[in-house]
Amino acid sequence: MFKYDQCNDCGDCFVQCQYADFTREKAVQEIQSLKRGENAAILKQCITCMACNEYCPTGANPYDLILQLHEEKKIHFVEPGVAEFIEETLTSVPNDIIQGDPDKPALNLCVMGHAYPPNMTESKMFAGLTLVRGSDYFSRAVFLHTGMEGKVRTHTQEYIDNLTKLNKQEIIFVHDDCYTMVVRKAPEYGITVPFKAVHIIEYMLGYLKEHNSFIIKLNRRIAYQRPCISRYTPEKEPYVDELFEIIGAERVARKHDRKNALCCAFGLRETDPERGSQILKKNLDDALDYGAEAMVFLCPGCYWLTSEVCEERGLAAIFITDLCRMALSELPFSSRPWEAA
Ligand code: SF4
Ligand code: SF4
Questions:
Q1: pLDDT (tens digit, 9 = 90+) per residue, 43-83?
Q2: How far apart are CA 265 and CA 170, in angstroms?
Q3: In angstroms, what is the span from residue 109 Cα to ligand 1's centroid?
Q4: 20 lines ligand 1 (CB under 6 A)
Q5: Would you say 324 and 208 are in contact if contact means Cβ atoms under 8 Å apart?
Q6: Residue with the nearest Cα to atom 3 of ligand 1?
Q7: Which ligand sits nearest to residue 7's alpha carbon?
Q8: Which domain-ending residue is among 72, 103, 128?
Q9: % helix / strand / coil in the chain, to the nearest 5?
Q10: Given the DSSP bridges, would you call strands 96-98 and 130-133 parallel, antiparallel or unpaired?
Q11: pTM for this predicted structure
């Protein structure tokens, strides 16, 4: 939610935007124009990367204002027909619960089964967890990228209710989208969350610390593809660093990581292929320039839609759970490690 009283018109949000080219003066005009509810130029230039929420030094959430105006003015980042197709597809995934140890948490896999690496949940890290997947456990946060927050908001209570019915004190979220909905958006919408949400990074870090003696350090240089939605929960960034450290992966200090990360641009590659491809090229060039051997993904969507291009450029594409499995000697260090195993 945009916090009008916290915005001081400094313009930092849009000066730092990596997809617009505004002077400070123009950036200030843009935010002022948005606050008046006008058709500011940024509304069309924005690629919905959410980064300005993190750039804002006062926590005013300028992206949330863009999102609100995108919806009001029907400026959709994807065509409504495409959004409806995504919604129909992702809301018709059958539910499936594989009961684990009653005293252990549930692992929410939502609707991204097609995007995760094969056999992901066979890892020792996930033994005994109750595995949950299907449309009832899908947060719809993807529509925060499409100027359609209404689709998200109206479903959130039902989403939290479905998770609550699992009757677990703790639920682990693999998809950063789903985690963000529970820890940020649901409270913002006034919805009570009666269980503890645990992020997959935090969970795996805990497991690896407890099983430190089984880790064989990877000694690999890794580029991290930070998901756009992580802009809502930057407080978990130290866990990402600690996870890399414990498994011996060097998170290369490239230009486009952390606050300066680039969107994987998969949506843009559909709507504006030239611009989307340029952003992706810039991102991969950066990883290679800094000597990365692999690109590691936290978002299953980014992983699914970017792996092939990484491989074409000579970068192994690895999902974060598989990277940890490699350090536990469950998989070889490789792109598509299930094929090489
Ligand atoms: S969401 Fe991203 S692209 Fe849009 S204005 Fe903010 S920083 Fe720029
Ligand atoms: S939203 Fe934040 S960064 Fe943008 S002008 Fe207001 S205070 Fe500055």
A1: 999 999 999 999 999 999 999 999 999 999 999 877 778 88
A2: 32
A3: 28
A4: yes
A5: yes
A6: 46
A7: 2
A8: 72
A9: 50, 10, 40
A10: antiparallel
A11: 0.96
CATH number of the CATH domain containing 125: 3.40.50
What average pLDDT does this structure show over 182-211?
Answer: 98
Q: What distance in angstroms lies between residue 9's CA and the mean position of ligand 2's atoms? A: 5
Looking at the fold, whether 25 and 151 belong to one and the same domain comes out as: no
Clarify whether residues 319 and 208 are in a common domain. Answer: yes
114 with 240, same domain: the answer is no
Residue-level pLDDT at 341 = 65
Q: Which residues of 87-121 are buried (b: 16+ CB within 10 A; e: fewer)?
A: beeeeebeeeeeebeeeebbbbbbbbeebbbeebb
Domain boundary residue, one of 199, 215, 246: 199
User: What distance in angstroms lies between residue 8's CA and the mean position of ligand 2's atoms?
Assistant: 6
- Mind giving me the DSSP string for 305-324? HHHHHHHHTT-EEEEHHHHH
Strand partners, 96: 133
The pair of structure tokens assigned to 192 is 């009570």
- The pLDDT tens digits for 245-268 are 999 999 999 999 999 999 999 888
Q: Judge if the beta carbon of residue 112 lies within 6 A of ligand 1.
A: no
Tokens of 300: 């299953």
Pairing outcome for strands 220-225 and 170-173: unpaired
Same domain flag for 209 and 186: no
pLDDT tens by residue, 98-156: 999 999 999 999 999 999 999 999 999 999 999 999 999 999 999 999 899 999 999 99
